[in-house]
User: What shape does this take?
Amino acid sequence: MASSIEDFYDAPVTTIRNKHAFQKGSSYGGKRIEDRFPIFSVYVSGVTGEEWEDLDSEWRKAWDYDNESKLWVETENSRRWLSVSLFEEPKVDMEFDPHGELCVKATMATVAGDPFWYEEDEPDQWINEVDTTNGSTSSGTLRVSNPTDQEIWLKYVVQAYPGAEYTLPDFSFGSNRREMATQHANRTITMPPLLAGEHLLVNTDETTTQVESNIDTQVYLRMDGIRFLYPIPPHTPPTDLPVSVTGAPAGVGVKVRMPRPWSRPWGLH
Assistant: This one.
């Protein structure tokens, strides 16, 4: 890579300021996380003209306007990617014939609709060890954490068994976003009874459908309007959250995935 890299560091943010007619100054009204427009240059070089042309072609073929590519940054402590696509056509320095120079500088203007750098999701699971088909309840825990500087929304996979009812956590973690931080400190949600062969895919993100079925049932209608409300705050240490199931045999369970979004390509632990 060449020097003069732009828009790689902190995720772009615009703060919202409000004021009334006679107010001195302004009041904080929130923030808007913008898309990111990384600009960077690379040198593509080869030993022969044919090799250079092949490498230059492979570099260009790795980029598209309609589909995203992953731009990776690796350090001793982390390996993160940013999903980007071309925003404009690559600019190539053609002052000299690259076949003769065996090197060309290509400047890439890209866009990241999701401005965060990601590491692989962190998983955990709980396996039920007790037969609860007699109506009893089996309980356990999932260990969750969030070392990032961003809030995260947990993703669950609930294993199928006809009639099984799982209970998943939705703790407020002190957030007053619903003005019920105390009342929802230990909030849980009992999922609707499962149909035969029905695994539930739960994405607690408030901007999504949240609950989907692998067999394409309208499971969200069976939720009776109940939704997950709370993300895991930034820099949350490992914490055990309760899960339970009733009406299921031993061996079924719940998996959780914890996304790892960061505003920078390294650091911030």
In short: The first helix runs from residue 49 to 61. The chain has a mean pLDDT of 94. The domain at 13-115 is CATH 2.40.30 (Elongation Factor Tu (Ef-tu); domain 3).
